[in-house]
Design goal:
The protein is an alpha/beta fold and about 325 residues long. It has 12 helices and 11 strands. Helix content is about 45%, strand content about 20%.
């Protein structure tokens, strides 16, 4: 009798274990199926080949492909034009199957919703955040012969010479354009914006002294500063840059509202499976944190800042709240 009871108990335990194992394998199979992504992925870039954002995309593509599965490959698809809007529209028209992603500068998920009357897409409605990638910094420079030697002297000069108080940016509606507005508000001084069609022409006028000041990425300004052709007075970041540790921030100079940075982020089409987004997020964040790639990020003047999809969305919302009143007050808008 005892042997029979023991046999029944063991049989029930075996059936229970088998059922549990069957359930676990089924759940694992479903999870794996949900996490599967296509054999190939493409990363959209809204600017031409060779630029900083393009180089970032290509380094990431090479490094995340092996992490996304055996034989997986990632291609970079340049869609230049309209300040990144063409690439954003391409993502909007893509299927949410986990095969298409967009590396975007801040203008795509943030500024487009403020400056364009009809942007054609809504990041909150149409795109799914994948990961923040990296920050890059901006600085303000004056000609080498300009009398201002620091930020305080520059602001005093602006107030004393209102007819000459201007700043250049590489393009109307660019982030340097809006940093100039931010600085004017922080310093309570009117600075006339002089837009250019690209950075080279702007830097030529700055070096010659035809332009009183200019705002540009520190990666573009640093070589000219070190050659003595221009003088960088301050940077807009929360901390001094590694490439220019001697240059103070505007916050240090007493203008805490004149702070911010540019950043690149990765987005998918809304409706892409959370499992696919999680897999790409993990692969991207691993590449950004890879010690062997830190030299490359430094060469591109990028500060890697891997985050979760939720953290990227929180940043996007905060940046919209920061920039909307500044840009709206200026009256600037694009049809």
């Amino acid at each position: 009798m005892h042997s029979r009871r023991t046999f029944l108990q063991q049989s029930l335990l075996a059936v229970s274990a088998a059922s549990t194992a069957s359930f676990s394998l089924t759940a694992l199979a479903k999870a794996t199926e949900g996490a599967a992504i296509p054999q190939a992925s493409r990363i959209l870039v809204g600017f031409g080949a060779g630029g900083g954002i393009d180089q970032l995309a290509r380094v990431l593509a090479d490094n995340i492909a092996p992490q996304l599965g055996k034989g997986h490959y990632v291609v970079v698809d340049n869609k230049p034009g309209a300040n990144g809007q063409i690439a954003a529209q391409t993502l909007l028209n893509a299927a949410p199957d986990g095969s298409t992603y967009l590396i975007a500068p801040l203008i795509t998920p943030v500024l487009s919703q403020i400056v364009y009357k009809k942007p054609g897409y809504d990041p909150a409605r149409d795109f799914a955040p994948v990961s923040l990638l990296a920050h890059f910094q901006f600085g303000l420079a004056v000609p080498a012969k300009h009398p201002a030697r620091n930020i305080q002297e520059y602001v005093a000069w602006l107030k004393a010479h209102p007819q000459q108080a201007n700043f250049g940016s590489p393009a109307v509606g660019s982030l340097p354009h809006f940093f100039g507005l931010l600085l004017g508000e922080a310093a309570q001084v009117n600075i006339v914006h002089v837009p250019y069609k690209g950075g080279p022409a702007m830097m030529t006028d700055l070096i010659s002294g035809q332009l009183a000041s200019a705002i540009q990425t520190t990666s573009e300004l640093a070589p000219l500063h070190k050659e003595g052709k221009v003088r960088i007075l301050g940077t807009f970041g929360t901390a001094r840059t590694k490439e220019l540790p001697e240059i103070p921030t505007f916050t240090e100079a007493g203008y805490p509202k004149a702070v911010g940075s540019g950043w690149y982020s990765l987005w998918a089409r809304k409706g892409t499976s959370p499992q696919a987004i999680a897999a790409v997020n993990q692969a991207v964040n691993s590449a950004l944190s890879n010690p062997s790639l830190q030299t490359k990020w430094s060469e591109l003047s990028l500060q890697p800042d891997p985050r979760t999809p939720a953290a990227l969305e929180q940043l996007r919302v905060a940046e919209v709240a920061k920039w909307r009143p500044v840009i709206t007050a200026s009256g600037f808008a694009i049809e």
